[in-house]
Amino acid sequence: MANWRKMMGVAVAFATAICFGGVEAQASAATSPGDLRITRFLGEQRLPHKLQFEGTTVGGLSGIDRDPLTDTWYFISDDRWRYNPARFYTGKLDINRITGRFGGVRLTGVTTLLRPDGTPYPAYGQPESADPETIRFDRWSRKLLWGHEGDRPDETHPAIPVSDLFLRWVDRDGRHLGELPIPGNLKLTDTASGPRRNFGFEGLTFTPRTIASIVEGPRYEDGEPPTVERGAPARITVWGRDGRTRAQYAYPIDPLPAAPIPPTGLTDSGVSEILAIDDHRYLALERSWIEGVNYRVKLYEIDLRGATNVLGRNSLKDGEPYRPVSKRLVRDFASSGTAVQNLESLAWGPRLATGECTLVVGSDDNFDDREVTQFLAFAARGC
């Protein structure tokens, strides 16, 4: 998120009952995910704070992806024209396919994202302003798909106009090529219904047959945001390659990993990115910002098989029980012993000579000098 407050490993089967607003949901061990595992850490690289590049200020990198044919990386900024118009960068990550060593990162270009009428998106607080949070390169069509989180007024921002979240196709020059239909239950409003402010689209991924996106946290109708005592559901929406909406599944966000300091302090917790392993297994980043504690981030493997399709349900806190996606912990980034950053990006890098795949995790510095733009590379198997 552009707000600075927005916010490997023991494998445990998520087979306990969870309750959202009195609605019990059971994650079954019979549909537990596979065995993706981190095998080694390959290195860390950073970009300088507020790096100046081709007339733009670099920061707020909230989504990354790679074109495997050209080894071009894409980085989307969630700058809402505080510095420059909505944009994405291209670049290179130096990952040695023989040794796995992660040796560097550099930018090679910057592209302004354009509206359907060919103009840049307006600045923050204006109608149709964009909040880019995720980007994917589609190796099948060779187009880019990016996600706007949307915006709406709330009690602390009463003058913000409603701006519906969206997923829009663009070419590599940033020109608009179309968009996916968004389910009605994800429509933003100026009432206590639909997605909350800053809880819109945050993660996006492709499989050969589907496209999937996740909203960061619970809709008003689905329950309250996570607390230390209880978690909350976020909705994963799945589209077919024909663009038709297929299903929605509930992702069970954990309870907060720590209490804020002071106890009345602010918190913000949800899913900041997803990444497909295959047609039904994804990785998911759960990211929390907790006042007095800072960031906490965990990486989970999730499995959609066996989960209830909740597309037709307006509420996940009232009505019949449902089964959420199953989840398994892959890595707790707090276990590294270093300060956890605002991790918001996941992407596959090149496969190594050992047969391991590479996983890159990136952070959004929020243009804040207390945070960094960081890229962490890991080798993994089971992917």
Give an overview in words.
It is a single chain. The chain is an all-beta fold and 383 residues long. The chain has a single domain (17-381), classed as Tachylectin-2, Chain A. The protein has no helices and 24 strands. It has strands spanning 17-20, 23-26, 37-47, 52-53, 56-57, 61-67, 72-77, 87-95, 102-112, 132-138, 143-148, 166-170, 176-179, 201-206, 210-215, 232-240, 245-253, 267-276, 281-290, 294-303, 326-332, 343-348, 357-363, 373-381. The strands form 7 sheets. Strands 3-24-23-22 form a 4-stranded antiparallel β-sheet, with no helix packed on it. It has a 4-stranded antiparallel β-sheet with strand order 6-7-8-9, with no helix packed on it. A 4-stranded antiparallel β-sheet has the order 10-11-12-13, with no helix packed on it. The radius of gyration is 19 Å and the shape is globular. The relative contact order is 0.20. The model is unreliable at 1-33 (pLDDT under 50). InterPro entries: Phytase-like_dom. Residues 1-25 form the signal peptide.
